[in-house]
Design brief:
With about 70 residues, the chain is mainly α. It has helices spanning about 5, 20-30. The longest helix has 9 residues, at about 20-30. The two termini are about 25 Å apart. About 0% of the residues are buried.
């Protein structure tokens, strides 16, 4: 899900930081510094105090391999 997809639903996120690695993202969420949308693959490594809430809209992530 992209920012444009979120804004199409009338939600304007206040983005202050952007990270690319899941560990950093989950650390910020764990410390109550925001929320995130991550693929299901990451759910196996959630900290105990982080809750996953499924989203209803189908979405996809394009991954490039070398």
């Amino acid at each position: 899900m992209r920012i444009n997809d979120i804004e199409a639903h009338g939600i304007k996120p206040n983005i202050r930081f952007q990270l690319s690695d899941e560990e950093g993202i989950l650390s910020m969420v764990e410390h109550n510094l925001g929320i995130t949308i991550l693929p299901k693959l990451v759910l196996n490594h959630l900290p105990q105090n982080v809750q996953a809430i499924p989203i209803k809209q189908e979405s996809y992530l394009t991954i490039g391999l070398c």
